[in-house]
Amino acid sequence: MAGAAVFCMAPIWESRAAPPELPTRPVLTLAVAQRIAAAAQGEADRIHATGVIAVVDDAGEVIVQIRMDNAYMRASGKLAPEKARSAVMFRRPTAVLEAAIAGKRPALATARGFVMMKGGEPIFVGGQLVGGVGVSVDTPDHDEQIAQAGLAAIK
User: Fold this and answer.
1) What DSSP element (H or E) covers 100?
2) Helix, strand, or coil (residue 6)
3) pLDDT in tens, 34-52
4) What are phi and psi of 49, to 5 degrees?
5) Global confidence as pTM
6) What is the pLDDT of residues 127-146, one digit of tens each?
């Protein structure tokens, strides 16, 4: 094979050296997401508010979504997971975002693809963002109350 090139890929670290140490972080498991959703649903049942509850991971992907019987609004199936995702992406409750739009930061409304209405809460474990919970039932105050009840299940 005259003129043939041979390429050899060496590992990033020397084979005799230890591999680099990578950081670890907590993740939101299915079991914990289910516990959050169940606690939120329990609060919704207690106050007689029906709708949708969603729990997402730190990338905003749905882990658990519950559509309760006789959900108040058809839009809730889209709103709940998007509230949770928005809380994750902004790392704060969506009630804070809604208040900013209504107050000193109306330009925040131009952030396309986010739902900035009460009912989305980020989930932190050990100071690390692991996901979010979003609720869309009958009123903004109930949405927020139910989402916070979900969070309380892991505090």
Assistant:
1) helix 94-102
2) coil
3) 999 999 999 999 999 999 9
4) -120, 120
5) 0.86
6) 999 999 999 999 999 999 99
